[in-house]
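Re-run with default settings, no changes from the original entry. Doing this only to confirm the output is reproducible before filing.
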Amino acid sequence: MAYSFYERLTALDDSFLELEDANTHMHIGSVGIFDAAPVTRADGCLDIDGIRNLMEVNLHRVPRYRQRLAWTPIAKNPVWIDDARFNLAYHIRHTHLPRPGDDRQLKRLAGRLMSQQLDRGKPLWEMWVVEGLEGNRLAIITKIHHCMIDGVGSAELMGSVMRAVADDGRHLDRPAPRWVPRPAPSPRELLAAEIQRRAREPFAALAALRRTAVHPFATAGAAYEAVQSVREVIGASLHAASPTPLNVEIGPHRRFDWFDMDLGTVKAVKASLGGTVNDVVLAILSGALGRFLRQRGLDVATLDVRAMLPVNVRQAADRDMGNRVATLVVRLPLEERDPRRRLERVTVETQSAKRSRQAAGMKMIEEIGDRTSASLLVQFARLAARSRTFNLVVTNVPGPDFPVHVLGAPMQACYPLVPLFQNQALGVALFSYAGRLYWGFNADWDAVPDLHDLVEGVGTDFDRLVDAAGVRSESTAAMAG
């Protein structure tokens, strides 16, 4: 038989494809801002060829970036195959703002780019290099489909392409490794492999049971815990959070805004008042959301508003791309106006969620989906959206604590983006990098025209929490628009 290559998607990866529609785009992204001087040629033009060459030299480290989707016959399960027509110039795109472009224009551009779905006939990523930003800066806007990678994997990918030293690019004198696409399987091969996989599943489950049979009590205990974990997650999905103006039918158009603050000050607040960095983040966001919804005429004291928090479960041995996350759902105390007590209440909520079986239950549902069909996970996700298990996603990804460079150009800031799910008009993502904490706010264009009010509120509530903690506040970044 002739050699061919393909890889199946996990149930979790597949679920991001199944959940996507014309209004719900399942790509993650970021806006990185760089000093443009090191990548500007003598004629004053950006060295876009040098940036493309940098990616080409490093692309062998992330083979998924040269792969596209294909589907098995009948069952229509997605698989990854090498894209024989891969063209790097299609994925790395060059554009500019009218000089001198400001941050407000850059945010509008990022929102428009994030409003467009990725082409499923090609590898599911784009990189937009944007010049013309005032202050001799450039931006790199990335879009990567969530079926390819999660937030932590995206941060690790950054480390594989960017460098910790201000390298001028001379190491790129060597040619890029030669890439030869592996032959794609025929529909008959895919069908035969799928039939064989389905036939092996009962035997694989039996083998796993036999491996644990020497510890029957441990096995029984583990089985009980697994069942209880799934029951807890399903039970939670049947209890709806409160309706809010942020939980409405969304369209395809996006607003993107951002804010950043000193990470050392956030850690000082944590050290003074307790909790974790993420607890401090949720306390700040709860204060800002409470004020935001009160401005819209809501009585937040009557609201049960919940955030879904992705939890990284990636192991040190995991080197493949894809998603390695579980989830926790916590209530946000929007009604609490005292910043110190609000942080205390958030800490109690997150500790309770961590002691629960939520993450284990979601992990079990994902594993069942891998053994059976991704449709189980997809239907559960749709149930959660319809029943409004949570109101918004808040994700916090750790990045490098040192500056990174592209061809010697230091990255000055990086604002992340999390996709919006059905009936969720706001998503908040955070990224820590080189001593600062960067917030990215993704919102539906029509449902949240006043997004800037929420962003300003984050700065206000951060200052209030700093004052309550009695710590010295480093400067927070002023918003440009």
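The first helix runs from residue 11 to 18. Residues 8-173 form a domain with the Chloramphenicol Acetyltransferase fold (CATH 3.30.559.10).
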